From TrEMBL, chain A:
The keyword Ribosomal protein does not apply. It comes from the Eukaryota. Pfam families: Ras (PF00071). It is found in: Endomembrane system. Keywords: GTP-binding, Lipoprotein, Membrane, Nucleotide-binding, Prenylation. Residues 225-236 have a biased composition (Polar residues). It comes from Cyclotella cryptica. It is a lipid-anchor. PROSITE patterns: RAB, RAS, RHO. This is Uncharacterized protein.
Automatic annotation (TrEMBL), chain B:
This is Rab-GAP TBC domain-containing protein. Pfam families: RabGAP-TBC. The keyword Signal does not apply. Transmembrane segments: none annotated. The keyword Glycoprotein does not apply. Residues 24-165 are annotated as: Disordered. It comes from Cyclotella cryptica. SUPFAM superfamilies: Ypt/Rab-GAP domain of gyp1p.
Length: 247, 501
């Protein structure tokens, strides 16, 4: 069974209030502002990182997904950038907090700090540049070293509109993703194909894994109570999650 | 200002409406730009006026007791009585995006600094002043000058400003006094002197004027050799890491300053590619790091403008008249000046970027001292300085402001005796945070992050706001800082130097 960690950092920093089955972030966080209170209403908050070589189109994937914008002349990302968007899946509202990282090697030290607490990663390469696909393994290692063990990784072949320049065949990438147990999709931030699907799929996947994990955790929490011993850590660990999935 | 950006938050829209759109109704002298009038409110709120002796007194008395009153307050506030006075006595620049406007802006800023003789002092750009490269100003530069004449038609007959005469005296002496040059450049360099002045301030050219020509000749030849050695070689003779560096440069050059038409030009892009690659080859400890490409853009823009009497070349129209020889010279000069600039901030780009981390930490510490409320609000929301200020340090605010603003800001950075880019820059960043303090304190994590990273928002504000007030804000912030908290000798020195130039 594939267990899954809810973004603990996020959930732990703010208390949750039950209200008509919906969950609100309370305390000194986002909804203190007077702006869009409705936007703050969500069931789950997932942190997702965008990684991959420089120039493969990470920032444009993000702007296409969150603002439906594409900019052929976008500047290189320095450090990290950040955007959010809420989607609906299986009757739940999921707010995705997406961190777009700089692709250049020199920034690894800074960007890898942002893997902490991430529950999903879109590993992007450019279908018209084979070297960006070759580097995917290095990025996977990067994730193994710095991210949570249970992070959901989706391989994204971007720039699928550049058919005449294709350097990475779909079959090749698909075989690779099966071998490494990754989800896979081809997208084009330019013509928007596949972008929403990519984010929708990874967020849904995260949600399902998390629900399964929560159920398992609840079972696990109940069972030892009846019997004996070693429940302390499990119980303590479970408390917030129990609250999380009861909404 | 008709194209008011839609996405602006309320307080910024207010700014545009009150300060700019209503400005003509105020009794503005002819020749004052609309935006200039808007900016007068800045001075009204007690920032820009610090240089005027009469007003400075008011500020001095006010600032120690009310540390955040002026900085924290929005510049949308209505002009006070003294502000109206400022309106009449201070010449404010028109929009920088108009050719000529930007140039005259600096001059007019400086008028303010001189002796308060005010608008009658506002000069045209000294069109007749021979630039050091006037041999190059061919037919096209005549066209440029005509355009400029049209822009400044109100001011043609006016005399050269006191400041400008002073500048001329300093820069044309056989041994240039660096101390004097720094002092006078701090408040802005007249555009037609900028190219030369930057080269001197960066240590690329010596203070001894008679050695300029030979130095340029030698350095340019040296660059040519470096180019032969590193760039003009077959690709298969490059190592893997060299190829990777070249690939990265080639990926980034087309994404450099895409909002500036000049950088769409192929020759400019090739020149940028070469000099970045060669710099990387010759500085293996840091090699090319994204963001260094941004740092080269002000040099290219300024040095190119040096051939056209300082008229801004940002629209790229001059490129048709730029000779290959000029291009080569600009490339070599940019290379050396970039090298000198980066030499001062070397560890910003080496492995793990320790310099950058240090700068961010210092910014955090500074904000902590100046504005406790803001600092604790940022802590509460969970946002880290590293998350938003890293880019400010890495690209020296080139991502946040229009290029013409940055060029003006760099006049000041370069005039700082020690470490304008390392030291003073932190104060500039802090003054922005403190300036937006009230607004920032209303924001949660998401909005904060969005606000900090949306450069369009910044440049819309600051195109209008312009370099003058930026530096004045900064100056004010330091002064306040010196008075209230640290009182370190160094800060006092800056303060005295800034407030009483």
């Amino acid at each position: 069974m594939f267990f899954f960690n809810v973004s603990c950092r996020v959930f732990d920093t703010s208390s949750h209030v039950e209200f008509h089955g919906k969950r609100y972030l309370s305390g000194h966080s986002n909804n203190d502002t007077m702006t869009t209170r409705a936007d703050e209403e969500y069931d789950y908050l997932f942190k997702v990182v965008l990684i991959g070589d420089s120039g493969v189109g990470k920032s444009n994937l993000l702007s296409r997904f969150t603002r439906n914008e594409f900019n052929l002349e976008s500047k290189s990302t320095i450090g990290v950038e950040f955007a959010t968007k809420s989607i609906q899946t299986e009757g739940k509202t999921i707010k995705a907090q997406i961190w777009d990282t700089a692709g250049q090697e020199r920034y690894r030290a800074i960007t890898s700090a942002y893997y902490r607490g991430a529950v999903g990663a879109l590993l992007v390469y450019d279908i018209s540049k084979h070297s960006t696909f070759e580097n995917v393994e290095r990025w996977l290692k990067e994730l193994r070293d710095h991210a949570e063990a249970n992070i959901v990784v989706m391989l994204v072949g971007n720039k699928s509109d550049l058919r005449h320049l294709r350097a990475v065949e779909t079959d090749e990438a698909m075989a690779f993703s099966e071998q490494h147990n990754l989800a896979f999709i081809e997208t084009s931030a330019l013509d928007a194909s596949g972008v929403d699907t990519a984010f929708q799929r990874i967020l849904t996947e995260i949600y399902r894994l998390m629900s399964r994990r929560n159920m398992a955790a609840e079972d696990g929490a109940n069972a030892p109570k009846l019997s004996s011993g070693q429940t302390i850590s499990l119980n303590a660990d479970n408390k917030p999650r129990k609250n999380c999935c009861s909404g | 200002m008709s194209q008011q950006p839609r996405g602006l938050p309320g307080f910024l829209r207010r700014t545009l409406r009150n300060d700019v759109l209503d400005a003509p109704s105020a009794s503005v002298e002819p020749g004052l730009g609309v935006v200039g009038a808007g900016m007068s409110n800045v001075s009204a709120s007690g920032v820009a006026s610090s240089s005027d002796p009469s007003d400075a007194a008011g500020i001095t008395s006010g600032s120690p007791e009310t540390p955040n009153a002026s900085l924290g307050g929005s510049w949308t506030s209505e002009s006070s009585g003294s502000g109206c006075k400022q309106l009449r006595t201070v010449a404010f620049p028109p929009l920088p995006r108009e050719r000529g406007g930007e140039e005259s802006s600096d001059d007019s800023i400086d008028n303010n600094e001189n002796d308060g003789r005010g608008i009658t002092q506002k000069t045209t750009k000294t069109l007749a002043t021979p630039s050091k490269n006037s041999t190059h100003s061919s037919t096209s530069s005549t066209t440029q000058q005509q355009t400029q004449n049209n822009n400044n038609n109100n001011q043609q007959a006016q005399p050269r400003s006191y400041k400008e005469t002073q500048f001329e005296t300093i820069i044309s002496s056989s041994i240039i006094s660096l101390r004097d040059l720094r002092k006078i450049s701090w408040n802005g360099i007249p555009p037609h002197h900028r190219s030369l002045t930057w080269k001197i301030l960066l240590g690329y050219l010596p203070a001894n004027t008679s050695r300029h020509a030979s130095t340029l000749h030698r350095k340019r030849a040296e660059y040519k050799d470096a180019r032969k050695q590193h760039y003009d070689i077959p690709d298969d003779s490059r190592t893997n890491s060299e190829q990777e560096t070249l690939r990265q440069v080639l990926v980034d050059v087309p994404r450099t300053a895409p909002e500036v038409p000049l950088f769409h030009n192929d020759r400019i892009r090739r020149c940028l590619t070469r000099l970045l690659y060669i710099w990387a080859m010759r500085h293996p400890a840091s090699s090319y790091v994204q963001g260094i490409n941004d740092l080269a853009t002000p040099f290219i823009a300024v040095f190119l403008a040096g051939y056209y009497n300082g008229v801004s070349c940002l629209d790229g129209e001059v490129m048709a008249s730029v000779t290959d020889e000029m291009m080569e010279e600009v490339e070599a000069d940019t290379y050396w000046c970039l090298t000198n600039l980066l030499a001062g901030i070397q560890d910003h780009y080496t492995s793990d970027q320790p310099g950058m981390q240090r700068m961010v930490m210092r910014l955090e510490e500074l904000v902590n001292r100046i504005d406790v409320d803001l600092s604790s609000h940022l802590k509460e929301t969970g946002i880290e300085f590293m998350q938003f200020a890293f880019k400010w340090m890495n690209c020296l605010l080139l991502r946040e402001f229009s290029l013409s603003c940055v060029i003006r800001l760099w006049d000041t950075y370069l005039s700082e005796e020690s470490g304008g880019f390392e030291d003073f820059h932190v104060y500039v960043c802090a003054s922005f945070l403190v300036h937006f303090s009230n607004e920032l304190q209303q924001m949660g994590f998401d909005e904060l992050f969005q606000f900090m990273q949306v450069s369009i928002l910044w440049s819309n504000v600051f195109v209008m706001f312009q370099a003058l007030s930026i530096v004045n804000m900064c100056r004010f912030s330091i002064k306040e800082h010196a008075y209230s908290k640290l009182g370190r000798q160094r800060n006092r020195n800056i303060t005295e130097q800034c407030i009483c130039p």
